[in-house]
Write a structure and sequence with these properties.
This protein is of the alpha/beta class. It is built from 25 helices and 19 strands. The strands form four sheets. Strands 9-8-10-11-12-13 form a six-stranded parallel beta sheet, with helices on both faces. Strands 16-15-14-17-18-19 form a six-stranded parallel beta sheet. Strands 6-5-4-7 form a four-stranded parallel beta sheet.
Length: about 550
């Protein structure tokens, strides 16, 4: 349902202009919309992490939201979604405060129904993003959207806080953002979500001004964010936790400029310290991943519940197969454009080159060779490429990084398939069906919350397989398994022995052959021996490697 020049939206904006012209301007600023999908039946879905959820409310959900409300007192609708609850309350003629974090969703609400009478009479007041701060600490009847109420839980915490205290802006994102928010609140911060992906730059600036925030914290770095924070007078703290397929552009002003002076970068990958410093950042530290023991802890399961998860060897994670196929298409398209001439010939060249590189890399996953092999096989996609069409086909990514992800998918499938002989159970996407042909048991996707904690609490060998091109990191999987008291067979990295006592708090392997050998060894040792190692690993997590530890280091 594109809003375009929707006549209902225009009428509502005209009504709003008479009572809140500032809000009208904010609604018309550009904003993200790809997280909302409309079906042919007119129903909408909302993207959370990588999963689509029903955004449209059923009548049963609407009735549950309004049941028991005191209709003689003001009501705050917290997360409008598509406005179904607001429409129901408006029919009763009651006073409604309607708040939404997402500018795109507010546009949809104003596009679906004529709110003119309610707006002009003041019976409905629409609120957006930082407007929620106005009601912090007030006693209000609050109606939460059944889906967005959880997504917006940090703004809900703001409503419970005392007004006037300093606010820290926290970049929107996934589960890790939730963990960092909890750690920030434990340190005394009021947390306001700052959606750098979906808000206009003007809305980002306004939220910084209205909140009085002096600091922004984000998970991963967005190009231009340091410059934006410098312009707004914000100090920036970034914890990088995910791989990137593109290069960092130089900071405006260089190492001595305000962008560099106001930013601190913590990266989970030691090699990336040099990359950030080369871009002009001056305060860069190695900040490994960590666990949230409030989320990850030994689960107490009934015998029946534990039996459903019973396995001797477990791996949880993405197969990366679908991502690899997408990257393959981008690489081939880029080569066809760069080479010119007959597209069929260029297509075949790219296919053959990709297969050649992957085949050679497949012979030895312990040494990452993709960049050098790709440079030989497809010199058309070297670092000197300037053709705009080619760069667009690559979507800003480095060709070797795209092929590296494909090789990483190869590695994961190969390792898991080799453990099919001992009946490894794997949770993740449908790409794991390829490993099921070799005896692996694919269990479907695992929920990131309670279910993942329950899986990691099992007395199995919990296998860790990192990305092929970043064997110098310790994955989140390692920290989460240990936080749950599970036994982890981790892939070796240079930092592993610095953070953990190998053989005492976990074990590790370097090659496929050693992984198979260590798996057999710990199967023979039995669940009691593995549980003792897992217990010591959890003690180490609680002592040194929680997200609270990392947040303190980032803010220091």
């Amino acid at each position: 349902m594109p809003d375009g020049v929707n006549p209902t939206l225009l009428r509502n904006l005209a009504a709003l202009r008479g009572v809140d012209p500032d809000l009208v301007e904010r609604i018309t600023w550009p904003c993200g919309s790809e997280h909302v999908s409309w079906g042919e039946d007119g129903e909408a879905d909302y993207l959370i992490h990588t999963t689509w959820h029903a955004l449209s409310m059923t009548q049963t959900e609407i009735d549950a939201c309004v049941r028991g409300l005191d209709l003689s007192a003001p009501i705050l609708v917290f997360g409008m979604g598509l406005g179904e609850v607001c429409e129901t309350l408006a029919r009763f003629g009651k006073q409604v405060l309607a708040w939404e974090r997402d500018p795109w969703l507010l546009r949809q609400v104003l596009s679906r129904r004529d709110w003119g009478d309610e707006i002009r009479s003041g019976r409905v007041r629409f609120l957006l993003t930082t407007d929620v701060l106005e009601f912090a600490g007030q006693e209000l009847q609050i109606v939460e959207h059944p889906l967005l109420g959880h997504v917006y839980r940090h703004e809900r915490e703001l409503l419970r806080s005392a007004p006037g205290e300093h606010v820290t802006l926290l970049g929107a994102g996934g589960l890790f953002v939730d963990d960092v928010a909890d750690a920030l609140r434990a340190e005394g911060h009021r947390v306001l979500i700052w959606d750098t992906d979906n808000w206009a730059k003007e809305e980002l600036a306004r939220s910084a001004e209205v909140s009085g925030a002096q600091r922004a914290v984000t998970i991963n770095y967005v190009h231009g964010l340091a410059e934006t924070c410098a312009e707004l007078g914000l100090s920036l703290r970034v914890w990088e936790i995910d791989p990137s397929t593109d290069d960092l552009p130089p900071l405006q002003g260089g190492p001595d400029g305000p962008a560099a002076q106001g930013a601190r970068i913590g990266t989970w990958r030691l090699a990336n310290v040099d990359a950030f410093e080369a871009a002009g950042f001056t305060d860069v530290v190695h900040l490994p991943l960590a666990a949230n023991p409030e989320r990850r802890h030994p689960a107490q399961l009934s015998d029946e519940e534990a039996a459903k998860l019973d396995a001797d060897v477990i791996f949880v994670g993405s197969s990366m197969v679908e991502q690899g196929l997408s990257f393959r298409r981008r690489l081939i398209a880029a080569h066809v454009l760069a080479r010119g001439g007959d597209p069929t010939t260029a297509f075949e060249e790219a296919e053959n080159a990709i297969e050649s590189v992957l085949s050679i890399q497949r012979d030895d996953f312990s040494v990452y060779r993709v960049p050098e092999l790709l440079a030989e096989a497809l010199p058309t996609l070297g670092p000197s490429v300037t053709n705009e069409a080619v760069l667009n086909a690559l979507a800003g990514a480095r060709p070797d990084a795209l092929l590296g992800e494909m090789a990483a998918a190869d590695k994961r499938i190969t390792y898991v398939a080799n453990l099919g002989q001992v009946g490894i159970h794997v949770w993740g996407d449908e790409g794991w069906k390829h490993a099921a042909d070799y005896g692996a048991v694919w269990r479907g996707r695992a929920g990131h919350g309670k279910q993942l904690t329950e899986i990691y609490s099992q007395p199995a060998i919990h296998l860790d397989i990192g990305r092929l091109y970043q064997t110098d990191i310790i994955t989140m999987r390692v920290f989460d398994v240990l936080a749950c008291g599970g036994f982890c067979l981790a892939e070796w990295s240079p930092q592993l022995g610095d953070l953990f006592e190998i053989g005492v708090e976990l074990d590790c392997y370097r090659t496929l052959e050693e992984m198979l050998e260590k798996t057999g060894h710990w199967l023979e040792q039995g669940p009691e021996a593995r549980a003792e190692v897992g217990r010591r690993g959890r003690e180490r997590i609680l002592r040194d490697h929680t997200i609270a530890h990392r947040v303190k280091a980032l803010l220091s």
